[in-house]
Amino acid sequence: QIMFETFSVPVMYLEHKNVLAMYASGRVSGLSLDSGGSTTKIVPIYEGHALKHATQRLDVGGRDITDYLLKLLNEKGCSFTTSANRADYAILRDIKEKHCFVADNIEEETKKAESDEETQCARYELPDGQVIQIENEALFQSSEILFQPQLIGKESKGISDLVCDSIMKIDTDAEWNGPLTSGCKQVMFDNIVLSGGNTMLSGMSHRLHKELMAKPGVVTTKLKVIAPSERKYSVWIG
């Protein structure tokens, strides 16, 4: 009603955001992993159609990472308040976007951080000009919840397992009433496209690729995780 009556839009078409993100990458088939503020959705797309029966969802997003970063920093002695404090929350979100990263190997990264806490730190300047030191451990542990949701009490698989589950659910009984080719699963593994603000975290595409290649059901050597530079806005571009 708002679009038609207020903005006088003559025609409106609704499309799945994962499909739009796939279009933005120049593809019509592949696996779209979109991670935003509150959720992460993994959708196989074949010839422009979202295969709903194989879609996977993880209720972990950017706000969860920020909240977990708040908890970790407070445990390290920082004095940030809850997410209800907008000023502090804006600072935490900025720290996340500038300094948080995905560890390539969480065990090795943790050992490295514990062995030399003084050098494994990031510098961040607060709005008042004060510079604080943030231990790297909090920066990579906060983003780890995408791969290990149980860290924040979520009873769900991480994104690597969900990607595999999604692709393995593809069969010839797709809801869009079209036959899938025998190489469809191969197409999905070869075209995993990331989108959404969360996927901007440094190291995410490499970690995802590494974990997928280690899965027993993955036999392809062409597996590719594509992280377009404009992926934060891929849905709009599409």
Describe the protein in words.
- It contains ten helices and eight strands.
- Helix 3 (62-75) runs antiparallel to helix 6 (136-143), helix 5 (106-115) packs antiparallel against helix 6 and helix 7 packs across helix 9.
- It is α/β, with parallel strands linked by helices and 238 residues long.
- Helix 9 links the parallel strand 7 and strand 8 (225-226).
- It starts with a helix and ends with a helix.
- The strands form two sheets. Strands 1, 2, 3, 4, 7 and 8 form a six-stranded mixed beta sheet that branches.
- The longest helix has 14 residues, at 62-75.
- The mean pLDDT is 88.
- Helices cover 38% and strands 14% of the residues.
Structural class: alpha/beta
Helix content: 25-40%
Q: How many E-type strands? A: 8
Q: What sequence of helices (H) and strands (E) makes up the elements? A: HHEEEEHHHEEHHHEHEH
Mean pLDDT: 88
Helical stretch count?
10
Main sheet? 6 strands, mixed
Distance between the termini: 24 Å
Residue windows where pLDDT falls under 50 for at least 5 positions: none
Q: What proportion strand?
A: 5-15%
* Oligomeric state: single chain
CA-based shape? globular
Radius of gyration: 20 Å
